[in-house]
Amino acid sequence: MTTDTHARIDLRLETRGAGDTIAWVTIDNARKLNCLSSALMTAFVDTIEQLGRRDDLRAIVVTGAGDKAFVGGADILEMGALTDAGQARAFITRVHKCCHAVRTAPVPVIARIQGFTLGAGLELAASCDLRVAAAGAVLGMPEVRLGLPSVVEAAVLPTLVGWGRAREMLMVGDNFSAEDALQWGLVERVVPAAELDAAVERWIDGLLRNGPQSVRRQKALMRRWERLSLDEAVQAGIDAFAATWDTDEPVRLLGEYRAAREAHKRSK
Predict the structure, then answer these.
(1) pLDDT in tens, 111-124
(2) What residues make up the domain containing 244?
(3) How many domains does the chain have?
(4) What's the Cα-to-Cα distance from 245 to each of 50, 238, 239, 263, rounded to whole Å?
């Protein structure tokens, strides 16, 4: 939690089933559209990293306080007070650390998007594993209009929307709708605002039906795929498949599947 009484990171932990934990991380700077100050970014990274050390953690949901914004961007006033390249480097590195924290978290991170999701906020959302947006959300990368290039995890955008669309987003700087983001592949779902939590819960329910170690291994493997050639990615998958038998999870869950299948056949 930050020392600013009006800006903080709120953490809510929910226990599901036999001790599984779901973490809800809320960026609460609602008076400033949840914009990211240095203090907020430091608190956010600390929160995500601490959560990542929990063996019972199954998923993290990241959202913004209120209904006006997910994250409206980095703190413009703080950026405007930067006086030299060293300060600028330190500030933008904090933005990167927020994005890196969710990309390297051992469990899936879900972005629950509502309202304005701009600049650093969109980079943070793009860094999450799954994204659901409320209809009416407004997204964009307006940095060029402030005399700045879009950097750090803006580099993720071409992998989601393609190079042509990414160029349009980053060079023109126009805002766009949640429906556009869905069409372009930037978000996986768009739902009415009243159904946002229900959409998140459907993903959580699906994750909880899966083997916890297999989900963690899948995320780690997909992160490796981003850096490997196709041949290397295939070999990494073979290695990951073999390593799965280090635990009892595949034997146990395959056995349960076979037993359920046999029971279904007998019931016919």
Answers:
(1) 999 999 999 999 99
(2) 212-267
(3) 2
(4) 28, 12, 11, 26
